[in-house]
């Protein structure tokens, strides 16, 4: 096949044929498989020999250690061990049974239970008189009682409540928030309160659920010489003019700082 092989080399060709190089010739034979188990699984993809890691029983693959019942075995129980399937039938005790048995398995009758002057059939579930939080069950002549299991609650302990006649606690609805508490400065604002957190261009409001929502103000008015008023977000273009660090009112005249022979006037447009 165009591939050189060293003398004595052995390899497997497609179709599960084992080949070897001997004296310049290639000799091939079908792969011989040794199957040391009774119910091997078919060869995996790319393999040639069946595997004993698991079992093939009645056309169904079973994992190692799997316990199962055959389709027509009634109470027969089988187990898969190292590729071998072993089946056995349970032994039935004489007379009454200590536990319920499958249909057509054992000809026995489970024992009834006598409890607090009453008789209960095997498997019956009931509650104690006046105690609905305890559940009892009759098992082979014996009564076993336990508390009714309660669901796991995801609320803190101070929000749990046990109502009259209830077996399990429930979660109370958390109280509605009355305001917003800010951890950074320790201030609390009532619901609906609007304030600025220090930046005049940002306003915050206390929401009904106790959260804080903030939004910045966009300044759209522009002019060549805006006046920035302390504590105000947007510059004021109607109050006057800013020139060389000084503020002049509308229509005010003043000498130029660059040429004392020039006179300037503030015109708000």
TrEMBL record:
GO cellular component term of the entry, any: extracellular region
Superkingdom, natural source: Eukaryota
Residues of the VWFC domain: 1-53, 53-114, 111-172, 178-238
Subcellular locations according to the entry: Secreted
Signal peptide positions on this chain: none
GO BP of this protein: cellular response to virus
Matching Pfam families: VWC (PF00093), VWC2L_2nd (PF23334)
Alphabetically ordered keywords of this record: Glycoprotein, Secreted, Signal
PROSITE patterns for this protein: VWFC_1, VWFC_2
Keyword hit for Secreted: yes
The keyword Manganese belongs to this UniProt entry's keyword annotation: no
PANTHER family in alphabetical order: VON WILLEBRAND FACTOR C AND EGF DOMAIN-CONTAINING PROTEIN
Name of the featured protein: VWCE protein
Organism: Atrichornis clamosus
């Amino acid at each position: 096949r165009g591939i050189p092989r060293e003398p004595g080399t052995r390899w497997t060709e497609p179709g599960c044929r084992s080949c070897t190089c001997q004296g310049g010739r290639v000799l091939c034979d079908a792969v011989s498989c040794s199957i040391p188990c009774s119910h091997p699984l078919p060869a995996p993809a790319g393999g040639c020999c069946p595997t004993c890691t698991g079992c093939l029983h009645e056309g169904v693959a079973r994992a190692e250690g799997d316990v199962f019942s055959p389709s027509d075995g009634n109470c027969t129980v089988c187990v898969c061990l190292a590729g071998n399937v072993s089946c056995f039938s349970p032994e039935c005790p004489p007379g009454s049974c200590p536990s319920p048995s499958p249909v057509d398995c054992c000809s026995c009758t489970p024992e009834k239970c006598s409890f607090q002057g009453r008789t209960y059939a095997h498997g019956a579930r009931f509650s104690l008189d006046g105690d609905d939080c305890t559940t009892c069950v009759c098992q082979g002549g014996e009564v076993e009682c336990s508390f009714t299991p309660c669901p796991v609650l995801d609320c803190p302990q101070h929000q749990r409540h046990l109502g009259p006649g209830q077996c399990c606690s429930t979660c109370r609805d958390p109280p509605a928030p009355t305001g917003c508490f800010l951890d950074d400065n320790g201030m609390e604002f009532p619901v609906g309160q609007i304030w600025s957190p220090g930046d005049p261009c940002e306003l915050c409001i206390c929401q009904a659920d106790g959260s804080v929502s903030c939004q910045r103000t966009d300044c759209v008015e522009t002019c060549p010489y805006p006046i920035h008023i302390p504590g105000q977000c947007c510059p004021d273009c109607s109050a006057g003019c800013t020139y060389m660090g000084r503020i002049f009112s509308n229509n005010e005249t003043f000498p130029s700082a660059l040429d004392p022979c020039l006179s300037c006037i503030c015109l708000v447009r």
